[in-house]
Amino acid sequence: MGGDLYALDFDGVICDSCGESSISALKAAKIRWPALFEGVSSELDEWIIDQMRVVRPVVETGFENLLLVRLLLEIQNPFARQSSVAEGLTVEDILEKWSELKPVIMKEWNEKSNDLINLFGIARDEWMDKDLSGWIDANRFYPGISDALRFASSQVYIVTTKQSRFADALLRKLAGVEIPSDRIYGLGSGPKVEVLKKLQAMPEHQGLKLHFVEDRLATLKNVIKETALDGWNLYLGRWGYNTEKEREEAEGMSRIQLLDLSDFSSKLKKSSDADHSLFGVAPGIPLSTSRSRLLRGSPPSRSSPCPLCPSLVKQKPLVADSSVTIPIPSALTLSLGRRFLHPDPLCPSASPLPFSRERKPFVVSSEARRDPNTNAARRASFSWRRGSKRIESL
Fold first, then answer.
1. Is the pLDDT of residue 49 over 60?
2. N or C terminus of the chain: which is more exposed, having fewer CB within 10 Å?
3. pTM here?
4. Where in the sequence is the domain holding 208, given as residue range(s)?
């Protein structure tokens, strides 16, 4: 079986959560160490939040944000210092020496990682309960990511140190995407190298090309150390939380490919089978069909895999320069108007065609046009329709 599997980090690959995580960490820090933050000015709060974006590349697990917030406070406020490392420390020193600094300050502050993890989660939960829209707005998905996830032709898994419930909430609220819970490996799922081993060992993944996209060079280095993971294609996202020095180092490592955001989005949406687009249309191969044939299921001329599941679909390709109407499976979340599970109506896994009150089917219109440069058919646009009335443009 051919195809691709993408294991994606969340923060720094899918979502720029630095604003939210920094504010949440500051809220949690004020709960954990109230005496230290008593009387801290709003100007110092803002300085800490600004510097958190600079030092964000060192964060592997969310609770480290709390440590960084307190360390930045100690750098600026001598009266708050209770560690031996804060005096004379700069943000550049934090970027260079965080792996050495972290165990020192945790010991001197007498802190345990599990306590900070729980507190960080509580601070986020309280923010979401009181102001969900504010919490959502403090995050943003990188440009093009939402569409890439919606129209991904590959199997997608989320492998993150973020607590799963927060990643799931952001996927639903910001992108209108629902990824099954068994495909989100969050905090508590074990080290990422172990998750990758688990994914590649699953019977249903045998024969797939494996891709792992990260923004932390240190994580990719850990994967390289595991010979059992030699079959994974490794990518460092240039747009994520990494430094120029790390990107330069990655360029000299044969196992790691540096990836631009636009290329990443294209990879997710591109099928590994070059003969099939999202709807199973072979670019440049003229095949004819009609809406009535699609709805009835016309006699097969060939078989090809459904873009979103292992099922074989017997179909006739579509004609370039024609408008093709394809039914949406009933599993579509119509309230979002953005997601459908099996875009090929002839896939045996697709659900029956849903109808509106007027018994008019909900359909997706896909317009294929011929590219004058390549003489190949390409998908130009999509729109949701109820009968002939346009509902929403994608």
1. yes
2. N
3. 0.68
4. 4-15+141-269
